[in-house]
Design goal:
With 378 residues, the protein is α/β, with parallel strands linked by helices. It is 47% helix and 13% strand. The strands form two sheets. A six-stranded mixed sheet has the order 7-6-8-5-9-11, with helices on one face. Bound molecules: calcium ion. Calcium ion is lined by residues 178, 236-238, 261.
């Protein structure tokens, strides 16, 4: 048989098989009376809750239709509805429509809402250890923190500490590696960082503070104007895709590669009492759809960032890297911040030690695998 003939035949067979598989008349309903063991199995719960409608209130820290994060949660809500046959009905409340952006943790803890989508480092005022579940400067990449959470004990620690607030967290996305931020003037030496006013939250802000920067927290809507007027000298945000939409490049064109948020975790967190009372089927639908959102959001950040990067040049953005002495000062500052926080809070110490142990193992593997590969590929 000639190759072309073979391909034609193979295509026909595959096509026939596929069509046959899609034909509803080929499907045979399972008669459980003939298979009592199947009726009793854990698989018999599909759609048993179809007529048991459950309504949930989910508030987020993002505006409605916010790219990637907000849109990702909207897809999750729709997915849950379809997969549950309409029996899980989530009412979505974007930032400030029901609960202020940074009040969702308390609102969910008290049961005012059933779930929220946000980022764990916003709750460091409740327990400084919570910021560690977002990741640390010079720490895990997105892949590594997912690995630690799911197969290295991270999720158990997170759920144990959130349980004290009647909360049950799930992974709800990851920003992937973030950029180091937008600066009005170039950073050529560590001295250029001294006294700079920069919008930067979380552990990254504490590290920058030790390096001489004055970290400032601002609502998202005020960052651009503050930068334009010189009220602040620099800001970090996320990565090219989201940063370009904020327009920072127009007033602060020096854009630095980053190390302060190498893979920040986003969370989908439930009121623990509420979640524990759901049926097993509904719990699993939420877990599976959250898992999909976690992966997809991370990939969408990557997909949009690689396209947005191509636009920087034509917009006059000056892509830069921090000088070696700044990186060295950042690493030294991180050690000090982790030691100080560990001294103050035993939960922080426990989580930080777990991360440190895991990171050492991960670095050994990266050295012989990913780091090698990225170097030879370049
Ligand atoms: Ca950020």
């Amino acid at each position: 048989m000639k190759r072309r003939d073979f391909l034609a035949t193979a295509t026909t067979i595959a096509g026939a098989t596929l069509l046959g598989g899609c034909n509803d008349s080929n499907r045979v309903a399972i008669d459980y009376s003939k298979h009592p063991e199947k009726k009793d199995s854990k698989y018999n719960s599909v759609n048993v809750n179809h007529n048991k409608k459950v309504k949930l209130k989910l508030a987020t820290s993002w505006p409605a239709h916010f790219p990637i994060m907000g849109v990702g949660v909207e897809r999750f809500v729709e997915r849950v509805k379809v997969v549950s046959g309409g029996s899980l009905d989530i009412k979505l409340y974007p930032k400030n429509t029901l609960i202020p952006a940074l009040a969702v943790f308390d609102a969910c803890s008290s049961g005012e809402i059933d779930a929220f989508h946000s980022g764990p480092y916003y709750w460091k005022g409740k327990n400084s250890a919570f910021s560690l579940f977002s990741g640390i400067p010079f720490g895990f990449t997105a892949e590594e923190i997912n690995s630690w959470m799911l197969y290295g004990g991270g999720m158990d620690l997170w759920r144990e500490l959130y349980a004290k607030y009647n909360l049950y967290p799930m992974l709800g996305g990851n920003t992937n590696i973030q950029m180091g931020g937008w600066f009005r003037k170039p950073i050529n030496t560590l001295a250029d960082m001294q006294g700079l006013k920069m919008r930067i939250p979380g552990l990254g802000g504490e590290v920058f503070s030790k390096m001489g920067v004055n970290p400032i927290l601002l609502p998202a809507g005020e960052i651009y104007t503050s930068l334009e007027r010189g009220v602040i000298d620099a800001t970090e945000w996320v990565g090219p895709a989201l940063d370009l939409k904020m327009g920072f490049y127009k007033v602060a064109p020096y854009y630095y590669s980053g190390w302060h948020e190498p893979g920040s975790v986003l969370e989908l967190t439930f009121n623990k009492n509420f979640f524990s009372k759901l049926s097993n089927e509904h719990q699993q639908i939420l877990e599976v759809c959250a898992s999909e959102m976690n992966a997809n959001m991370m990939y969408e950040f990557h997909a949009q960032n690689i396209l947005a990067l191509q636009k920087l040049d034509s917009l006059g953005v000056k892509l830069s890297k921090f000088p070696t002495e700044v990186i060295g000062a950042g690493k030294k500052a991180l050690v000090e911040v982790l030691a100080e926080q560990s001294e103050k809070n035993s939960d922080f110490k426990r989580v930080a030690l777990a991360i440190d142990k895991r990171l050492k193992l991960s670095k050994d593997w990266d050295e012989v695998s990913l780091k090698y590969f990225l170097n030879v590929r370049s």
